[in-house]
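Intended use. Records like the one below are meant for learning the mapping from a protein sequence to its folded structure. Do not use them to infer anything beyond what is encoded.
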Amino acid sequence: MPDDADLFAVDPGRRLAAARRLQGRARRRLANSPGGWPTLSPGARNAWLLLVTSKPPSWRDPLVPWPDVPLTLGEPHPGFLYPDPMGFWGEVRRWAVGIFRRHDPTWGVAEALALTALIHLGDEPARLALADATCSPLTTIFLDEASAQTTGLEVAAESVAIPDPHRPDQAYVGWWGTTAEGRVVGKAPQHPTMHRLYRAEDLDGWLARAPWPRRPHD
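Structure written out for the chain above:
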């Protein structure tokens, strides 16, 4: 049976393999959502990548209920596949693949989302600590300025700007940094719902600038 060193390893491949090996009672014990985990926040129990936003997705299909299922292990949460004409979940999937393909160029949506969680803070910034304690992510991306500011995190960051494709004088600034513990933290130049205000290749360039996480003893 995989131990915590495998399930929460620095290496994403080890995390994914450990989650997929987990069976029986041990799997049932871990594959759940802790108390206080907000709805509309899909994710994996051992997510390596955590996406943080200030508000939950606003669009709901009146004919398709939200898949209110526990956190997953070794497979994508069905919430990431929710139908969405606003394009939010489509961008979330694309961003996750972009991050993980730096680890393994062959990884696709199934592998990337099996190690991703998204949580919205609302007016409860303590939810970030809940997600950290639950998933032990090693890369955290704040999707908007509001979520980044409410957490009180302090990290030396490198700014990265991407242009607005429609207004030559307009640019959007994101950043990347690494904490003293070796965790990677970033703030996106634009929220995924605003994908019409950035080119995919420019956002991909920002994703490619993400540092690789490390442990303090590495």
